[in-house]
Amino acid sequence: MAAGASSGVLVGRHDHALDPKKRFTIPSEWRTSMGLPLYVYVMPDRKEKCLNLIPPAEMESRLERLREKALFDPALNAAYEAIGAASEQLCLDCQGRIRVSDKLLQFANLTTTVAMVGSVRMIKLWDPKALAPEKKVDQAALDAALKAAGF
Q1: Nearest in space to 122 (alpha carbons), one of 73, 37, 53
Q2: CB distance 114 to 23 below 8 Å
Q3: Which CATH class is domain 13-129?
Q4: What does each C-alpha distance from 23 to 4, 20, 33, 102 come to in angstroms?
Q5: How far is residue 104's CA from residue 71's CA, in Å, rounded to a whole number?
Q6: What is the pTM of this model?
Q7: How do residues 36-79 score in pLDDT, each as one tens digit?
Q8: Strand, helix or coil for residue 75
Q9: Residue ranges of the domains in the chain?
Q10: Residues 75-111: pLDDT tens digits?
């Protein structure tokens, strides 16, 4: 599979400790699903105190649609600047680790462990204490989610 190609969905949950350099490993099965990328994008979530890890193929397809907009639109350029200032493009090392900036780690309260939750097209990075325990399947929440997604 070529680097940068996207072949699968991102599902499940993986908790990883931050190492002494504040890095964590993206699970190998997710790296494979993302097409073995050399880098990923990370940005704060719009509503929750978590981070969104976005595969290159997903981000670049969104950026391609934005490129169709007027280049010198002041409101759009202000939006691009806000997105760019809050986001990071992070290279994966040979072991699949990334180092998110202290600013973004602090935003999401990621101090010792990162709960990575597959969100089909991206990965949500949470403080494990902010999530409900994984003791059972919440069928009502799943049903609502499936309906909202038109699944």
Answers
A1: 53
A2: no
A3: alpha beta
A4: 22, 7, 21, 11
A5: 29
A6: 0.84
A7: 999 999 999 999 999 999 999 998 888 877 777 767 788 888 88
A8: helix
A9: 13-129
A10: 888 888 888 899 999 999 999 999 999 999 999 999 9
